[in-house]
Write a structure and sequence with these properties.
3 domains; mainly beta; 3 helices; Jelly Rolls; five-stranded antiparallel β-sheet
Length: about 400
């Protein structure tokens, strides 16, 4: 006959449990408080295992195997269902609490022995880990003394013409047919480039499956010249076993000229690791998990602690609220929500990284929502300022309710 239960998760997860036959007297309160106690009752399909004090009501779920946490069966005589036990070995029979205490003592001793063995294994693993770290550090130090070996192509696009981009923001994304593992450089072909300080180019090398950043570079406009732009990693990318993806963002100032195909190259070294310095490298972004595109991400409440979030504006008054360290790496835009209580004529503006939204008016419900596109090149954290001005006469309470950020949509 088969065994069933009303709570398979609770039964299978119990580290130590005691079974009682259906007709056995109630367990000692001390026992019931110390160990999970389950009853075994007869049901239409076979035998039902249910918690003490709870009848075996439907639904009954068949047990695929014997529960592993049963330490003993507390009964004066072997119950009839013991012959149908689904496991290869039935739990031991304890005829009275004294025998049960002896079984518990043996189980505790065995658990302590296993715990001591696991502690020894953890110590050995820690020692091996420290030895591996020391060996890796020594290898990196010795390998870094040699002149960097020339890289070899892991992937290469042919050069091709491209029309100049219009002024403004442009985003591109490519998934390359090769792995990101051990990449040492990314190269981008610029058929035409004549840019000033108002333009900037951002390039990211990403593990496609996990959206982890293997490398990030921010190149100012004056450094953009026609030809292949090579961007080196300080050391080879980690062996993540993922496809390589490249994201490119360009912010082109009016009057500047830039053309992107984009033709790409991914480079590795054939021998020892290659260590290079890049003036455009962004170390704060390395290893970062990129959030999904077009998803607004809120700030944890801890970031608001100690910061003023509301102000009482008199008629004609001005004020400023500020969050001093907002994470902006890979963010394309911020969105702020402001609420007004009493009065009218309040305007708000959002500023971050030298970009401002301009003044925004409240809607009829007394809310102001501001979306601010961020300039390319912001990394790490940056202060975000909310500027307020009151054009009316009656005082008004202004509260900064929320701030969110998101990545932009990348053209594929």
């Amino acid at each position: 006959m088969r065994f069933f239960t009303t709570d398979p998760a609770g039964l299978m997860a119990a580290p130590r449990a005691v079974l009682l036959p259906a007709g056995a007297p109630p367990p000692n309160p001390a026992l019931a408080s110390a160990l999970p106690v389950w009853r075994v009752s007869r049901c239409e399909e076979g035998w039902a295992i249910h918690p003490e004090g709870r009848p075996p009501g439907p639904p009954l779920i068949a047990l695929p195997s014997a529960p592993g946490g049963v330490i003993a069966i507390l009964a004066a005589e072997p119950p009839s269902w013991l012959a149908d036990w689904p496991g290869p070995e039935a739990p031991p029979l304890a005829r009275d609490p004294a025998e049960l205490a002896a079984l518990l003592a043996r189980a505790l001793a065995a658990a302590e022995a296993r715990h001591a063995g696991l502690q020894r294994q953890i110590l050995a693993l820690r020692a091996e880990h420290e030895e591996a770290r020391a060996a890796m550090a020594a290898w990196l130090a010795s390998a870094g003394q040699a002149w960097p070996a020339p890289p070899v192509l892991a992937f290469a696009d042919p050069e091709g013409p491209a029309a100049p981009l219009a002024a403004g923001r442009h985003r591109f994304r490519r998934v390359l047919p090769c792995a990101v593992d051990h990449a040492t450089a990314v190269a981008l072909h610029l058929p035409i480039a004549a840019c000033g300080a108002g333009s900037v180019l951002s390039v990211r090398l990403i593990g496609e499956e996990s959206s982890r950043l293997a490398g990030s570079w921010i190149v100012p406009g004056p450094a953009l010249t026609p030809g292949w732009l090579a961007l080196d990693l300080p050391m080879p990318a980690m062996p993540w076993g993922e496809s390589a993806a490249v994201e490119i963002e360009a912010d082109l100032a009016p009057g500047d000229v830039l053309a992107l195909h984009p033709s790409l190259r991914l480079l590795r070294t054939a021998g020892a690791a290659r260590f290079m310095l890049s003036p455009f490298w962004e170390p704060a972004a390395e290893g970062m998990l990129l959030p999904p595109e077009q998803v607004w991400l809120g700030l944890p409440e801890a970031m608001w602690e100690g910061q003023r979030r509301s102000v009482l504006l008199p008629g004609g008054g001005r004020a400023e609220l500020c969050l001093p360290a907002v994470p902006v790496t890979a963010m394309a835009a911020l969105r702020a929500e402001v609420a007004l209580t009493g009065g009218a004529g309040v305007q708000a503006a959002l500023w971050c990284g030298g970009a401002g939204s301009g003044w925004r008016d409240a809607d009829p419900a007394g809310r102001i929502t501001i979306t601010l596109p961020l300039p390319i090149g912001l990394a790490g954290t940056a202060p975000v300022r909310l500027l307020l001005r009151h054009l009316g006469r009656l005082e008004c309470r202004v509260a900064w309710r929320a701030l969110q950020g998101r990545r932009g949509r990348i053209e594929r």
